[in-house]
Amino acid sequence: MPKKLKTKLQDKLKFEYFYNAYLRARKHKKIKREILEFDIDLETNLINLMEKIKNNTYYVGQYRKFIIYEPKRREILSLPYVDRIVHQWYIGEFIKPYIMKRFIKDTYACLDKRGIHKASNVVQKYMRIMKKKYNNYYIIKCDISKYFYSINLDILFELMSSFIEDKELLEFTRKMIYERATSNIGIPIGNYTSQYFANIYLNELDKFVKHKLHIKYYARYMDDFILLVENKMKAKEVFEKIKVFLDERLNLKLNPKSRYYFSSMGLDFCGYRIFETYKLIRKRSVRKIRKKISKWNYRYENNSLNYHKVLVCWNSFLNHASHANCFNLCNRLYEKMMFTKEINLNRYKERLK
């Protein structure tokens, strides 16, 4: 694989690429006015968008801000629909086909055929290997403090420059990173590009852990990462080296909750509590579904329950639960529902068997 991306910006300024990006941006979106207005003259709008990028007259739109509180308070920035098409085109044509393929096998966010379930399965496999080799071992569990808000844009652009050869594409990347930024620290949560830039940023940590520290059993999901080492002395040494590397190379700080500990305590990672021989659902997830069941029961008693939304939510929970050892838990939750006669939830329980 070449050291730098050879593809030129002009090579991808074709209608078919923008139409595919439009389809991806349009998928699963609610019908809104800005989408309908763009769709009315779709072909012309896509061609105009291509011409703006070609002539360097495209500018990133104005962000819309809103707050979410699950699982904690976060400020989300949302761009206009046309900019989301541009992001889909940029990521789909340049980042995914080349840069993401250069990542190590033990990073799992934003990558096809990976994700939280594969990450948790691989980590459990590593824990079993360590148990067999050392019986007792240590887990280093870390995450980055305020990660998206702490990314240094200058360092990010330097990293992107190491991947991209075409000057036009590099200048367009500069626009994606810096335009609308209020400082050189932090990228907006909510942008499609942000999750990929954030993953590329910590690819430097992956290379440091694997190639410099030579840690064999390592996994990362975005800014959450774990390492398995043979003893406490090794854990302390590796933990301190990672802190120094993050500070000096990437200007990042570990979350104060980051630590190393004895393996018998298990591991909270990617939504599961993982042990060598079994997995459980994270306690926070159980509390969340219990609260929802209480709300569903209340609405059922008041004849205001939306059964379709219940099925969607319950099915999603069971899909997540099917990757853990929690059949009895799901049965107990099911029994707390007051409306099981009115709606067939039994067939969803079959997923767990």
Structural write-up:
This protein has 14 helices and 9 strands. The protein is of the alpha+beta class and 353 residues long. A 4-stranded antiparallel beta sheet has the order 4-5-3-6, sandwiched between helices. The chain has a 3-stranded antiparallel beta sheet with strand order 7-8-9. β4 and β5 (224-229) form a beta hairpin. The longest helix is centred in the middle third of the chain and has 21 residues, at 192-212. Residues 348-352 have low confidence and may be disordered.
Characteristics:
alpha+beta; disordered C terminus; 353 residues; 4-stranded antiparallel sheet
Sequence-ordered SSE layout with sheet pairings:
Elements: H1 15-26, H2 33-40, H3 42-54, E1 64-68, E2 74-78, H4 81-99, H5 116-134, E3 138-143, H6 147-150, H7 153-163, H8 167-178, H9 192-212, E4 218-221, E5 224-229, H10 232-250, E6 259-262, E7 267-269, E8 272-274, E9 279-281, H11 283-301, H12 307-321, H13 327-336, H14 346-349
Helix pairs in contact: 1-3, 1-4, 4-9, 7-8, 9-10
In short:
Helices cover 53% and strands 11% of the residues. It is of the alpha+beta class and 353 residues long. A hairpin with a 2-residue loop joins strand 4 and strand 5.
